[in-house]
Amino acid sequence: MNDKYSLAKCAQYGRRLAARLCDQRFGSQPTATLDGPAILNFTPVRQLNLLALRQLLGQWQAETARLRSPYFDFEAPPVQAALMQFMNLLSRHISLGRAAFEPLLAQAAADTLGLVADPAGSFQRLLLGSTEHFTLAGLRDDLRYIDIDKLFFQGFIDNLPASSDLSRDFLAHRFELYHAANYKAHQPMQRLVEELSVLLPLTTADLLEDGPVSIASAPTIPTIEPVSTTSTAAPVAVPTFVANITPQSTAPISVASETIAAATPAPPVTPVTRPLPDTDASSVVPLHEKLKAGQAAAPPLAETLRATAAPSLAERTGPKVETLREAISINQRFSFINELFSGENMEYHAAIQHLDSLPSADEARAYVTGHLSQRYDWSRKEEHVNKLLKLIERKFA
Q1: Which of 146, 256, 259, 346 maximizes the CB count within 10 A of its CB?
Q2: Does 165 share its domain with 310?
Q3: Is residue 324 a contact partner of residue 391, using CB atoms and an 8 Å limit?
């Protein structure tokens, strides 16, 4: 979780991978086209194929959204039913040339890497999109395009309240909490990198924010043969748009009877109960000091903090920050909420907002050591309090 991956580098690799695969597929047949089954078998990485296909659904939804007129009622149930039938028919006649397919594949590759590199952002981008209100049925429907970490996302949806209308803000905030508590259940980036590296060489270092500037080119690899979609796992019913596209047949397909076999999921990992707090060498208390503290009554926190003089500019770690709200990382935020505010999210946000509004470091420190420390009994929370005070020093540097 400490690794910071660059989404720009993920996108760069996606473009290079798409160009490589399209060269192999269309090189000798530049005018060839792909239908639905060909897309589902285009690469051995199932997630790439599903996300490329999902973008076709998005294209269709965008086009039907423009079918509005002051003269006709497109929302009438018979019209909606007719549009759905038309969509089913059209999905059996997909025809993509290289110029149309390569950008879809590049985006699918970037999104595939993003599922591991940025799960929270991927959740909002792939499952929430631009919609403002959701239902559990709709979220489960979109899960059919997710193969990597499917059990992780499924666990989140299964734990949502049985409400008929869920707002975007509620889901985004709830997913942050869920991700922070269960991030160890994610598929490691190394596993995905090994799969993709067969198609175009890649290492995890290539994707780090502070890693190499560009991904090195690699020698040409053999053309990829279509993979079989046969699976021993139970088939998963798919949305209507995909249900018409089964990679094992090119004959007319019945919508109600078709499924896409789901890849065998990785065994679930027991989630952790809470996020691990950020630590650094300067704030960890040595063991002998903890034992010493347990043998005698700890001094009041106010005295401890007063005895610790405000660090000098040379002692401060990190550059100046504009606001505490922006400077506190997601992991650190949940650490503060759990350790300093007893899990009360709203009280944490109110305290940080008030600290950001204070005009000087002295007033901010006084608010922490006086008001907050007494209200929440931070007498044995020096490690987390010191981290908060360091951030305050950086804000008023």
Answers
A1: 146
A2: no
A3: yes
